[in-house]
Structures are given as structure tokens and as C-alpha cells.
Amino acid sequence: MFSKKDGRLTWAYWIPTFLFLSGWEVGARLIASPLFPPFSKVIAEFVYLAGEGILLKHLTLSLLRVVGGFVLGSLTGVVMGIILGCSNLAYKSLAPLFSILYPIPALGWLPLLMLWLGLSEALPVTLIFICSFFPLLYNTIAGIRSVNPKYIQTARVLGASPWLILHHVIIPLALPYIFTGLRLEAGMAWRTVVAAEMIAIPTGIGALLINAESLIRVDIIFVCLFILSLMSFGGERIFLWLEHKLTGAWK
Questions:
Q1: What is the DSSP pairing of strand 8-9 with strand 4-5?
Q2: pLDDT tens, 20-52?
Q3: Angle subtended at Cα 225 by Cα 178 and Cα 190, rounded to the nearest 5 degrees
Q4: N or C: which end of the chain has fewer CB within 10 A?
Q5: Residue 3 pLDDT more than 90?
Q6: pLDDT value at position 249?
Q7: 0.85 exceeded by the pTM?
Q8: Which parts of the chain span the membrane according to its record (predicted)?
Q9: Is 145 exposed, middle or buried (0-12, 13-18, 19+ CB in 10 A)?
Q10: How far is CA 16 from CA 13, 19, 29, 76, 224, in A?
Q11: What is the spatial distance between Cα 127 and Cα 69, in angstroms, rounded to a whole number?
Q12: From CA 194, how far away is CA 187, in angstroms rounded?
């Protein structure tokens, strides 16, 4: 039933989704409560917010924050992970410090960052940086330490320099671990920015979400939740595609 034909999923793939949305529409109309709007009303509100540019404005601000914090945190985490994964001295020196800081939730830093940075754009970006840094750090270390030493030894015997071994042996074999961290953090970054915007930032999807709650606009809340779901899903699919392009031939 779920087989592919001509590169496309068959119609049966959409049956659960169709039943869910139909049940939502019928159930909401039977209940007739402002706290549970029909799916059609949510779609109508989405069209209105998109047409007025309200949704695009808030989504763009949230997206810029996510991309900025995620790129900086991920790159820093990967670089530090490579250093700690390849150097026993660096690992023994810095691992205890990172082990102490890692259990602190990213949002746990919010009160302190509000005092240090104020209610500025640096606040959500820094939170997402923290959120992205540690998982990429530990995934990179795990990926590098999982490389079979025989591969490294073989490359040395063939005359490869340490840089060539890192570039052509260690990092490629660690990529699946790194991409796992990227996929996980693609969704976590959105959850972090929404929480920060709900608490401390007056713009973005999180701010739109909390304002809708204060106005008892459940339809807008559902619109925001759908947008967050699509953005998280889209980020994960992008990294899955990149991973397949980079490692699909030999993974």
C-alpha cells in the first residue's frame, strides 16, 4: 500500500492525514467552542496573516535568529569537537569543564543573559548558540573516536600527513555522527528561539504565539504551531539530503 510508483508515494499515504483533518473539522464544528476552532478556520487565519505580511515579518525575524545562532554554535561545536577528538591532552583538559556546563538547559541561561545582554537580538542568538554548541561538540567527539584506528594507521603507512588524514579519513567517517547532531538541533533551535521570544523578545513567532494566547486566539496559536512544525521538519530534511549527498555513496 505504501510502495512507490513513478517516484511518488501512492494516494494511500495521505489517508491518515485526511482522516485526521476531517475528524478535526467535524469534531470542532460539533463542539462549537472558541478554544477549538475548525481546521478550515485555521487555514483562513493563515491566509489572512500571510496576506497581511504579519506572518512573514515574525517568521523572518525568528529565522534570522535561528540561522545566526545555529551556524555559529554548530561550527564552534564541530571545531572544538575535532580538537578534543584528535587530542587526548585537549580532551582531558577541557572535557571536565564541558561536562559541568552541558547539563544546564539552554533556557537556564536566559535570566543571566537577560542581565548581561538585555532584551536585544544578541539574546536569542546566544541561547541558540549554547543550544547548538554542546550536542555538536559531543557528537563530533563521538564520531572521531569511533573511527577505526586501522584506517588511520593505513593512511600513515601510505605517507599521508596529519592534515590529509584528518581531511580524508577522520572527518568523512565522523560525518554521520555530525549530521545526527545537526538534525536533532534543527528542531531544538526552533524550540529555543520560540521560548526566548515568548519570554523576553517582543517579535518573532514566539511573540506572536504568546500574544495570541493573551487574546484567546486559538486559531493563531495553531497557525504558529504549524509553522514551527514545518520549519523544524524542513531543517531536518535539508540535513538528511546533505548527509545523503556527502556520504550516500559509501556510508
A1: antiparallel
A2: 999 999 999 998 888 999 999 999 999 999 999
A3: 30
A4: N
A5: no
A6: 63
A7: yes
A8: 12-32, 63-85, 97-117, 123-142, 163-182, 188-210, 222-242
A9: middle
A10: 7, 5, 20, 41, 22
A11: 7
A12: 11
- Identify whether the C-beta of residue 72 lies closer than 8 Å to the C-beta of residue 125: yes
**Could you tell me the CA-to-CA distances from 114 to 14, 109, 118, 123, 201 in Å, in that order?**
45, 9, 5, 7, 10
Q: DSSP letter at 104?
A: S
pLDDT tens, position by position, 110-134: 999 999 998 889 999 999 999 999 9
Question: What domains does the chain contain, in order, with CATH numbers?
Answer: 39-247 (1.10.3720.10)
DSSP letter string over 122-183? HHHHHHHHHHHHHHHHHHHHHHHHTS-HHHHHHHHHTT--HHHHIIIIIHHHHHHHHHHHHH
Rounded CA Rg of the chain: 23
Q: In the prediction, which pLDDT does 250 show? A: 58
CA distance 62 to 76: 21
Q: Which residue's entry shows cell 565522523?
A: 174
Flag whether pLDDT at 251 surpasses 60. no
CA distance 185 to 236: 9
Tell me 106's DSSP state: G
Query: Cα–Cα distance between 139 and 44 in angstroms, integer?
Result: 42
Question: Distance between CA 185 and CA 130 in Å, rounded?
Answer: 11
* Model pLDDT, residue 8: 54
